[in-house]
Design brief:
mainly alpha, 126 residues, single chain, globular
């Protein structure tokens, strides 16, 4: 099951940070996030979940964004979760509307996302 979110392609100006901190628009993660057409990808991703029942899937920006970060830094799943929880720029990149101190998902969520959407057999088929 998939539920569309209403805060897809937000601006770095809208990112809510505690204690009045502000996101730097020149940060590499802000620039990269703003170049990716998340709304288009999200709409296509949502069509993969025609059922209105079952567990609710994470937004594509969150899942794919986390995998992009992980690939860039070669983090383990657990380290990736810690890095995202500590870094407002990474949280912006994965589409959060503001900084959150708690972990957004656990390592098993990343395993499931990779397995479901990115695993390929040796012949290239899913």
């Amino acid at each position: 099951m998939y539920r569309p979110i209403d805060w897809l392609q937000h601006s770095f100006l809208d990112f809510n940070q505690p204690m009045g901190l502000h996101i730097n628009p020149d940060n590499r993660w802000v620039k990269l996030a703003d170049r990716i057409p998340w709304d288009e990808f999200e709409a296509k991703y949502a069509r993969l979940f025609p059922s209105g029942t079952g567990n609710v899937a994470k937004p594509l920006r969150m899942a794919l964004g986390a995998l992009i970060i992980q690939t860039r830094f070669q983090y383990s799943d657990r380290e990736l979760i810690d890095q995202i929880a500590e870094n407002p720029y990474l949280q912006y990149f994965i589409g959060l509307p503001g900084f959150q101190e708690e972990a957004l998902f656990d390592a098993s969520t990343l395993v499931l996302f990779r397995k479901t959407h990115f695993s390929r057999d040796a012949d290239g088929s899913k």
